[in-house]
Amino acid sequence: MPHLFQRLVAAATLGLFLSTAWAQGQEATIRKNLNDRIPQLPKIEEVSRTPMAGLFEVRLSTNEIYYSDAEGNFLIQGNLIDTKSRRNLTEEREAKLGAIDFNTLPLKDAITLVRGNGKRKLAVFEDPNCGYCKRFERDLSKVDNITIYLFLYPILGADSVDKSRNVWCAKDPAHAWTQLMGREQAPASAQCNTAAIERNVEFGRKYKITGTPTLIAQDGSRVPGAINTSQIEKLLADASK
User: Fold this and answer.
1) Domains identified in the chain and CATH numbers
2) DSSP for 55-89?
3) Which residues, 6 or more positions from 142, have their beta carbon under 8 angstroms from its beta carbon?
4) Residues 146-173: pLDDT tens digits?
5) Cα–Cα dist 224/240, whole Å
6) Cα distance between residue 59 and residue 47, in whole Å
7) Looking at residues 41-51, what average pLDDT do you find?
8) Counting Cβ atoms within 10 Å, is residue 193 exposed (0-12), middle (13-18) or buried (19+)?
9) ω before 213 within 30° of 0 (cis)?
10) pTM of the predicted model, to two decimals?
């Protein structure tokens, strides 16, 4: 029996080795063919199997997801749906790739707003000239018992940079922000060290934050775009599970 067990373990180990070697070979083939045939394609960061036989996920440096056959002869853009579980596997994968560890956020570079007991936490990247941000702020103002870490993220032009500086350098940045976004009252011109805003932009570029508002929940999930009050509440509830 011991010898039989050893043979079974050896066979299983060999099978795993051959399977891994085969997968690595397919990955190399897919990379080579796609790079040769579509040179304008962004850098391929990862090639991995999907639950669908013969289909491989191709993740690009832009975090875009495509799908390929085992030879790189065909490239598919779209959603992969598991019909049995009714799950959108592409959306789930994109959400995982877009997640940002809340503990890595440079909170010292954010404006902190506390409402109620401040128990729930949410980070937001916003541009002062973003119309969607202003709509989002109206809905966010109805949420209580929350701590908001606002990262000024001026990506819409020079005026956004000026307004962000004036907010950051105000005597009460939180008040200046709420007055600007809620009442269209621009803060007075002010000067101070704005290295924090520059770091916010660098952080956003690193994590490919391309639009505002972008929300980061405590569980790391990222939500791009304005969402309403009920959706904010659901995001906070899901993040606390």
Assistant:
1) 2-98 (3.10.450.70), 102-239 (3.40.30.10)
2) -EEEEETT--EEEE-TTSS-EE-S--EETTTTEEH
3) 229
4) 999 999 999 999 999 999 999 999 999 9
5) 19
6) 6
7) 93
8) exposed
9) yes
10) 0.76
